[in-house]
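To illustrate the input format used throughout this study, we show a single complete record. The first block contains the structure-token representation of the backbone; no residue identities are included at this stage. The design step must infer an amino acid for every position from geometry alone.
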């Protein structure tokens, strides 16, 4: 008897990669089959730590509603941006990160070459029509050798991906329900954001876009 050659797991999953830079890759539809489970996870988290519009250091409010799960949660208030173990709204630890979030992030990172990615923080953004996120860098984490894994659910959005300086003109990429974007290495500190969401309705998620941003904060 011959041993069958071991099938390549990525080939088996038939993953469509949209590699728009060497270190920034969209895994198209990678999370589609997990959408129900991810939504259950998001609802459970939001039942314990509500979505809220955080205050920015300059006194305005973030247009996306946010919550967190995992050991650390990203927050913004009048004293700045940072990670905290406690949700300032209820003074309790952030809800546990659903295992499915952690596993999805590790698998996606692994496929594009970041092995053993152990996320300890997941920011959940909820965008309603017309809301956006202006260009920014993710730089409140301790170790920039760890990638960022970003999962899109619901309405399609135009994601902007700029350079390492704010004035570099961003390229845009549409992100669809189930897409997973991974960036790291030399791209880790690239400016990014999302254009205002267009009004529409997603059959499963409704009139919003949800985004999970998984990171290693500490
Ligand atoms: C973020 O950068 O925190 C969110 C990006 C997105 O919503 O895709
Ligand atoms: Fe970000």
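Output of the design step:
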């Amino acid at each position: 008897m011959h041993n069958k050659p071991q099938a390549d797991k990525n080939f088996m999953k038939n993953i469509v990669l949209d590699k728009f830079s060497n270190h920034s890759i969209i895994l198209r539809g990678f999370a589609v089959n997990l959408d129900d489970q991810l939504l259950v996870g998001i609802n459970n988290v939001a039942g314990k730590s509500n979505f809220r519009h955080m205050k920015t250091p300059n006194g305005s409010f973030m247009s996306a509603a946010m919550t967190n799960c995992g050991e650390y949660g990203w927050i913004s208030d009048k004293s700045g941006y940072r990670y905290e173990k406690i949700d300032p709204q209820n003074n309790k630890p952030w809800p546990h990160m659903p295992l499915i979030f952690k596993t999805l992030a590790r698998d996606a990172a692994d496929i594009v070459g970041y092995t053993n990615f152990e996320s300890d923080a997941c920011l959940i953004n909820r965008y309603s029509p017309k809301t956006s996120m202006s260009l920014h860098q993710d730089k409140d984490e301790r170790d920039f050798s760890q990638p960022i894994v970003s999962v899109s659910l619901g309405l399609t959005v135009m994601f902007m991906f700029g350079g390492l300086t704010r004035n570099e003109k961003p390229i845009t990429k549409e992100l669809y329900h189930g897409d997973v974007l991974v960036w790291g290495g030399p791209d880790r500190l690239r400016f990014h954001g999302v254009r205002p969401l267009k009004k529409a309705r997603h059959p499963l998620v409704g009139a919003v876009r949800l985004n999970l941003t998984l990171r290693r904060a500490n």
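Structural context for interpreting the output: Confidence is low (pLDDT under 50) at residues 1-8. The pocket of fe (ii) ion (ligand 2) is lined by residues 136, 138, 192 (CB under 6 Å).
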